[in-house]
Amino acid sequence: MSKRAKMTEPEARTTIVSSCVQFRIDYEQTKQFPIGKAVHSDVFSAGGHLWVIDFFPHGDREADKGEYISIFLVHATKSRSARANFEVSMMGRDGKPSDIRRTCKTFGISEDDDDSWGWYQFMKLSDVEKRFLKEGHITFACTIMVMDGSAIPVLVPPSDIGIHLGRLLDNTDGTDVSFTVDGEKFPAHRVVLAARSPVFRAELFGSMAEATMSSITLHDITPATFKAMLRFIYTDELPAEAEPEDSSVEMFQNLLAAADRYALDRLKFICAENLRAKVSADTVATILASAETHNCHELKKKCIDFFAVEENFKEAMFTDGYALLVLKFPSITAELKKRVKA
């Protein structure tokens, strides 16, 4: 995928050619690599030059003790110099890019010039495994912009609105409403909640009683769930404690229910995707019940397809979750039995 665009004045003489590639790595297979051993991407072209991306699952230097991953852009065309901007991000479990890094480098043709450029300490191994490992793989999204002229492009920093709004939530500056959940108090800002959720907008600025209340008591939600949802409303990201792979199914089910209740569609999608990855014989029944309750069609399909395998069905039907599924959704369990018999 490539595109050509002219830079605006005063650098209108410089043409930028960019290429975007996704570099997917079998992380489980590379975990045994020693420090300094790399995984190489396929050779690709950008701006008339050939490039390779080198990934080091345990870093490229003994000094870093193998605690970091490293990633570098390698200029494979030795006959011509090139000035390139290299942008790398890691794809999160929700399919969205995160932790964007950028650098700019002129690759020369003499023996003294470096033919690679990147980061020795791109990210700690522990963070990679907690936040980005999905089905045994990690994926980098890489963009290489090659400048045909000598001007240096202006790099626009990534959006930091979530960081600033998160600080606003942490410092409680200007809060004008609070929520009490099981005795725990959560200060917030009406305008932020209303901007993010149509349900909050109706409650806080409509004709409902909450519009005139400075403190609102909530039921049928836990403090931990409300805290995580509130953090997402302000930052558009799950809190750090909701990211590890061992986060419980119950946590994502509770957060899914809250997202559905307050019409937070992106959060609902993220929770459903996390639950999709956690479907097993022990969890499939409770996850299917959540999918049916909150109208998550893709998640429901994943669960039903899992149940359709006779071995999975025989194991899952003896769980407590399946007994509750039978009581709450008898029509679904009848459908499951037909699928298995078929």
Report what the structure shows.
The chain is α+β, with helices and mostly antiparallel strands. The protein contains 13 helices and 13 strands. Strand 7 and strand 8 (97-107) form a beta hairpin.
The H-and-E topology, N to C, reads as EEHEEEEEEEHEHEEHHEHHHHHHHH
The rounded Rg comes to 25 Å
The main β sheet shows up as:
5 strands, antiparallel
| Mean residue pLDDT | 87
Count every beta strand, where a strand is a DSSP E run of 2 or more residues: 13
**Helix fraction by DSSP (H/I, runs of at least 4):** 25-40%
Count of spatially separate domains: 2
Residue runs with pLDDT of under 50 for 5 or more positions: 1-13
Give the strand order of the largest sheet, numbering strands 1, 2, ... along the chain: 1-2-10-7-8
| N-to-C span | 44 Å
CATH homologous superfamily designation of the largest domain: Potassium Channel Kv1.1, Chain A
Oligomer: single chain
Supply the number of helical segments: 13
